[in-house]
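User: I need a structural model of DUF3135 domain-containing protein from Nocardiopsis suaedae for a docking pre-check later this week. Nothing fancy, just the predicted C-alpha cells so I can convert them on my end. Input:
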Amino acid sequence: MPADTPIIPQPDSTPEALREAVSVLAPQRLGEFQRDLSRAEADQRASPGMQPMRVFAAKWSQFAALHRFPERSERLRRLEASLAREADPAKSREAIRAISDLLAEVDAEINARGARSAQPNTH
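Assistant: Understood. Predicted C-alpha cells for DUF3135 domain-containing protein:
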C-alpha cells in the first residue's frame, strides 16, 4: 500500500462510524472509546446543548484522521517519543510545534470534509 493511501476513509462523526473506525485502526482503544462515549452521553443528558457529544466526536474524528494513514500515525508516535525523552527546551518546543502542526493539518482535513458534506447536492 502506498504511503499516502489511507487504511480506511475518514469516517462520519457519528458514534457508530467512529466505533467502526477505531475497531479497525486500534482495537485496543475500544474500551477507552466506549468509556468516552458513555461519559459524553451521560453529560449530554445532564446538560442542555450538544457540547459533550461534539467534544467526543471531535476527539475520535481526530484520532481516526491521525491513524488512518500509517505514516501519519508513526510520525506522531516518533514526535511524542522524542518529546518524552528530550531534555533540551528548544528541541522540546520544536517537537511540540511539529505535533501542533500535525494536529492542525488533521483538523483542517476534517473541517474541509465537513464543509463539503454540508454543501447541498445540486445534481
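Before docking, keep this in mind: The two ends are 34 Å apart (CA to CA).
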